[in-house]
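wait is this the right file?? whatever heres the structure
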């Protein structure tokens, strides 16, 4: 009885199950009476009671979730149903017409650890949308889709689908399969994309507004003022360059993201790259009054894209010169490092400055796009806020990483880690 009550999809119709129960009861009582275990009178009374219960049960409702439920033992799911659910990657719960759980899979258990077979699902997943959707699915025998969110312990968003399965004698579904899809990662990506577009537009709009302002001034008040024209044109050039740099960084970022899954496979020696980058930044170092010391000898081979590794080191050394200039000194050292946490032999390039350093609360966010400790300072230095995001993406593509050691007032060390590779074989 309780079996048909909770898993009607796997019996025939309710009426059919009841008829089988009546026939079985008749047989059992007949045998008991014939063998003398029960007197014929008791056998007839027993049969009538069981048959009446079976027929009443067959006519009983259960179409509405949350209907008054008799205390029945937990329904047992069929092995095939259990196996079917176990093979699904998304959380799935099978519900009977009475809203009780017939079966569920491991992902569903992870989603709602309090789920129990035979208990009303509404005790565990307490959303009105769910009760409504399940009731409607049984009533209309058509799938219902709804979304809901959880606030505790974390913000999470889900889409759930209630799908009818099987046909009861009354043409309604016997069972509902509730499946869930976690929309949280999608939502986060959407939010990040929206933030990114807003940030990028804002970054471009600021120099553009300055350019438009100066153009108007040059067309109007300053039209015949040669001195003002010189001054404004110089500012306009700085702003236009800033826009060009920003667009360049944005394009690089999207190109690197497109290739993120393709690991570069050319052998590259980091030592000459370090020297080339430091040589290229000597003018900036002189302008800032900083001496750059390089410690790199022999060779240090990695699998990499030369231009991208140049870009990483340029960003790190340039940042040290821009933000750490007060320390008057920058050390760049390339050498094999200790084995990484996952057992990989690594090449390391350390860029150390003796400037103001970075407070610990900023460290985890430095590689986020457009994150700056001090927006004003970054803009004054011609920064786009994308340099360290680029560094992080390039290193990830090289199966490497960036670590930062710093404390406020104690300078900063940015360390690039890339797996060491065999030197190329001489041809
Ligand atoms: P930006 O274009 O602003 O330089 P980055 O992504 O290269 O963008 O750097 C992000 C922020 O990290 C910088 O704005 C700065 O606040 C901080 N930063 C980077 N390098 C250093 C450093 N060597 N010393 C102190 N702060 C740094």
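ok assuming it is, sequence goes like this
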């Amino acid at each position: 009885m309780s079996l048909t009550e909770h898993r009607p999809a796997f019996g025939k119709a309710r009426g059919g199950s009841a008829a089988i129960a009546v026939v079985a009861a008749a047989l059992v009582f007949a045998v008991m009476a014939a063998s003398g275990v029960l007197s014929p009178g008791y056998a007839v009374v027993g049969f009538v009671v069981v048959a009446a219960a079976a027929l009443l049960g067959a006519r009983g409702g259960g179409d509405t979730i949350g209907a008054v439920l008799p205390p029945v033992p937990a329904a047992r799911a069929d092995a095939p149903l259990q196996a079917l659910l176990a093979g699904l990657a998304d959380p799935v719960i099978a519900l009977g017409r009475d809203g009780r759980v017939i079966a569920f899979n491991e992902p569903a258990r992870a989603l709602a650890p309090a789920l129990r077979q035979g208990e009303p699902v509404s005790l565990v997943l307490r959303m009105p949308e769910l009760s409504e959707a399940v009731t409607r699915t049984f009533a209309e025998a058509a799938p219902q889709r709804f979304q809901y969110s959880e606030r505790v312990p974390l913000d999470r968003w889900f889409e759930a689908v209630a799908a009818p399965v099987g046909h009861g004698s009354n043409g309604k579904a016997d069972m509902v399969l509730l499946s869930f899809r976690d929309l949280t990662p999608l939502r986060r990506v959407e939010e990040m994309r929206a933030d990114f577009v807003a940030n990028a537009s804002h970054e471009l709009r600021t120099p553009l507004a300055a350019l438009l302002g100066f153009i108007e001034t040059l067309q109007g008040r300053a039209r015949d003022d040669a001195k003002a024209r010189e001054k404004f044109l110089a500012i306009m050039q700085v702003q236009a360059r800033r826009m060009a740099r920003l667009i360049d960084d944005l394009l690089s970022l999207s190109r690197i993201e497109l290739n993120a899954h393709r690991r570069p496979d050319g052998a590259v020696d980091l030592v000459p790259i370090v020297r080339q980058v430091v040589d290229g930044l000597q003018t900036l170092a002189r302008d800032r009054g900083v001496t750059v010391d390089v410690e790199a000898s022999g060779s240090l081979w990695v699998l990499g894209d030369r231009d991208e590794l140049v870009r990483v080191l340029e960003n790190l050394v340039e940042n040290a010169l821009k933000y750490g200039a007060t320390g008057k000194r920058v050390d760049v050292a390339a050498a094999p490092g200790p084995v990484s946490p996952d057992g990989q032999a690594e090449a390391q390039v350390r860029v150390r400055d003796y400037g103001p350093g970075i407070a610990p609360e900023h460290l985890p966010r430095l590689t986020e796009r457009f994150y700056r400790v001090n927006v004003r300072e970054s803009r004054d230095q011609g920064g786009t806020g994308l340099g360290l995001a680029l560094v992080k993406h390039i290193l990830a593509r090289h199966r490497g990483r960036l670590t930062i050691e710093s404390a406020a007032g104690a300078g900063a060390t940015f360390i690039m880690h890339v797996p060491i590779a065999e030197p190329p074989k001489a041809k």
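The CA atoms of residues 66 and 408 lie 60 Å apart. so i think its the right one actually
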